[in-house]
Amino acid sequence: MEPWRPSPRNPMHRIDPKTFHFQFPNLRYASGRRLCYLCFQVERDYFYYNDSDWGVFRNKVHPRARCHAEQSFLFWFRDQYPCRDEYYNVTWFLSWSPCPTCAEEVVEFLEEYRNLTLSIFTSRLYYFWHPNYQQGLRKLWDAGVQLDIMSCDEFEYCWDNFVYHKRKRFQRWNLLKDYDFLAAELQEILR
Ligand SMILES: [Zn+2]
């Protein structure tokens, strides 16, 4: 496991391959996985060249300092990119989809940053059967967030960019186990 990062202001650069293969598979139920990982990419259009920022956040599970990975990102982003008028293209790759509280906070965040587009690829749907969680996803969708289940392309992209792969080639192994179920479920929720 990678070292504990006490401050939400500091994303990790990458995660190790074991963590990736344990935390990221498309599974219908994955109750042993209490952590949520958020790999992100920020692209900006600024005077004809593109600059981008990358990193990984993880939720904090300490009972006195709970902070979801999404909240860490929002906190970090506001600090890092104070300019609200610039164009930003943000992509998240999440191991679990956002909870209703985080969904709410993302919607507020998008109201602050009018020129920001957010795409979320999630590996699994957190409490997909629960109406409040479904509602949270619909709120994100209605606010213009692009939502999708992580497929082979996204896994490979994450492997290349967010994993200490040491030049090992990407292997899909069990990553796509319940992809079809989750993709259909998400479609149903957003319908
Ligand atoms: Zn949350």
From TrEMBL:
MF annotations from Gene Ontology: cytidine deaminase activity; RNA binding; zinc ion binding
Domain CMP/dCMP-type deaminase, chain residue ranges per copy: 15-140
Presence of the UniProt keyword Protease in the record: no
Pfam family, one: APOBEC2
Cellular-component GO terms for this entry: nucleus; P-body
Keywords: Hydrolase, Lipoprotein, Metal-binding, Zinc
Cofactor or coenzyme needed: Zn(2+)
One example of a Gene Ontology biological process annotation: cytidine to uridine editing
Keyword Glycoprotein: no
Recorded superkingdom: Eukaryota
PROSITE patterns given in the database record: CYT_DCMP_DEAMINASES_1, CYT_DCMP_DEAMINASES_2
Position of the signal peptide: none
CDD domains in alphabetical order: cytidine_deaminase
Alphabetized InterPro entries for the sequence: APOBEC/CMP_deaminase_Zn-bd, APOBEC_Cyt_Deaminase, CMP_dCMP_dom, Cytidine_deaminase-like
Family: Belongs to the cytidine and deoxycytidylate deaminase family.
Protein name: Apolipoprotein B editing enzyme catalytic polypeptide-like 3C
Source organism of the structure: Panthera leo bleyenberghi (Katanga lion)
